[in-house]
Design brief:
It is built from 12 helices and 4 strands; from the N terminus they run H-H-H-H-E-H-E-H-H-H-H-H-E-H-E-H. By secondary structure, the chain is mostly helical.
Length: 343
């Protein structure tokens, strides 16, 4: 009898110890999650602050060089805000995770077109320059379709195909340079008092890029950690959280630019980033290591090409993007996001 009582007491003691271990583990993980959420909020704040500095510096550079804000958005701004995509994709292929790399770029590009341009138009109707309709959006659409052809030809992007994409990007930069030189000749005079000094421009751009990349990295890492705790798969993280997180610099920069009336900068940033992501990021990565794209579905490819075609179509209506069209673009992304989560 006494042995039975002692056995029950031992079982109860072990149960209490197990319960305390579970509670301590839960408390520790809860503290970590609270810290991650705080870091996510901090990352958003840093990115928004960096976007404001970067936008001011980019606009100052456009005025100083006497070129349009659209050209600056298509080149300097898009290259700077696409640094997170480049770093994530390059590190992914080095870790033999090419599907994650391609998924990050596809997700980022769809986000750039539908959410960034949509949110910018939702904030304030955007006037679309004719050169964007005749030159830059078709360039973006073509390189998106070219990537689709390369990937579907054998389920892999070969090194020579990557080099071809890089050459395409170099040709695009040369075209932008020629246009910029034309803009300088046609630019209206700007008084010296309105111009920002080069040291201040460089300082603002560098500080802005550092804040955009650093804040975006903190945001992505902690958001992905929280998502894993909630049971979200790695592939979905790459196409959603990672893609949206690495596109946060573009989102912040374009929304801030649109709120300041710099429509060319807002649109040029999104379109230029898409060309950079495909032609340079994936082009460079696949020229180093051939990239398998076996886990990317037909819906993903359709969204990559179709989102660009949709923006091109709605922008042709009156050479402007209204708030209603902005809502349409954001709604399309939400529907795509739901399909990813249900996949």
């Amino acid at each position: 009898m006494e042995e039975n009582v002692a056995g029950r007491e031992k079982i109860l003691l072990l149960s209490d110890e197990k319960m305390w271990r579970i509670m301590r583990t839960f408390a520790a993980r809860f503290k970590e999650m609270v810290l991650e959420i705080i870091l996510i909020i901090l990352g958003i704040a840093v990115v928004l602050w960096g976007a404001d500095r970067f936008t001011d510096g980019a606009c100052g550079l456009a005025r100083r060089l006497k070129v349009s804000e659209l050209i600056i958005g298509l080149t300097v701004v898009s290259l700077g805000t696409s640094l997170p995509e480049f770093m994530v994709s390059f590190l992914s292929i080095l870790r033999h995770s090419s599907n994650m790399s391609v998924g990050n770029v596809i997700g980022s590009n769809v986000f750039n077109i539908l959410v960034i341009i949509g949110a910018s138009a939702l904030l304030k109707p955007i006037k679309v320059e004719k050169s964007l309709l005749l030159r830059d959006i078709p360039v973006c659409l073509f390189v998106s379709f070219l990537l689709f052809v390369f990937a579907f030809s054998g389920g892999i992007i070969n090194q020579w195909e990557g080099l071809l994409l890089v050459l395409y990007f170099c040709a695009y930069l040369y075209m932008a340079y020629r246009v910029a030189m034309g803009d300088r000749r046609a630019a209206h005079a700007v008084s010296h008092a309105e111009q920002m000094s080069y040291p201040k421009i460089v300082l603002l751009v560098l500080i802005g890029i550092a804040a955009l990349v650093g804040g975006g990295r903190v945001l992505v890492d902690n958001a992905a950690s929280v998502a894993r705790e909630w049971g979200v798969s790695e592939s979905v993280i790459g196409m959603t959280i990672l893609a949206a997180g690495t596109s946060l610099p573009e989102l912040a920069t374009s929304v801030v630019a649109a709120s300041k009336g710099s429509h060319g900068l807002a649109l040029g940033n999104a379109i230029g980033s898409n060309v950079f992501n495909i032609a340079f990021v994936l082009g460079f990565c696949s020229s180093v290591v051939p990239m398998a794209v076996t886990e990317i579905t037909r819906l993903d490819w359709l969204m990559l090409v179709g989102s660009c075609a949709l923006v091109w179509f709605v922008a042709w209506t009156r050479q402007r993007l209204s708030r209603g069209e902005g809502i349409l673009l954001v709604f399309c992304y939400v529907a795509y996001l739901v399909s990813l989560l249900l996949r």
